[in-house]
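FAQ

Q: What does a record look like?
A: Structure on top, sequence underneath. For example:
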């Protein structure tokens, strides 16, 4: 075999072939390493994306849990209240009482108005008595 214009022996040829094989193996190793590095980079990016997704899911889960706790607290407050039928009965009774009180108020107002008129009439008569009978108030004081 001729290399750069010089004939090489069998041992040199084997050494050269070994060197080429080593270089070829190193190139394949480098390609494999680069492929592994790219795959690891893709996996890292995927893991980062998964972490972000899981963070969002955790955030949503916390909000959902908070809503459930709030609903449970409201449910407990509602459960402590008396039943609607009982409350409606109380409301009806109070409405009847209000109606009765309004009627009493109207009657009391009429009575008061009548008493005012009667008192006004009494005062008017008291003023007319001396005039009609010619009695002087000065004489009445005696």
């Amino acid at each position: 075999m001729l290399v750069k214009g010089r004939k090489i022996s069998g041992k040199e040829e084997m050494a050269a072939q070994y060197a080429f094989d080593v270089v070829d193996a190193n190139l394949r190793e480098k390609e494999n390493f680069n492929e592994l590095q790219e795959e690891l980079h893709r996996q890292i990016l995927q893991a980062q994306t998964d972490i972000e997704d899981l963070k969002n899911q955790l955030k949503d889960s916390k909000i959902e849990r908070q809503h459930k706790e709030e609903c449970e607290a409201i449910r407990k407050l509602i459960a402590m209240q008396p039943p609607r039928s009982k409350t409606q009965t109380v409301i009806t009774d109070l409405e009847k009482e209000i109606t009765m009180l309004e009627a009493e108020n109207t009657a009391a107002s009429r009575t008061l108005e009548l008493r005012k008129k009667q008192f006004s009439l009494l005062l008017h008569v008291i003023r007319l008595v001396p005039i009609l009978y010619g009695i002087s108030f000065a004489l009445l004081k005696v």
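Q: Is there anything notable about this one?
A: The first strand starts at residue 2 and ends at 3.
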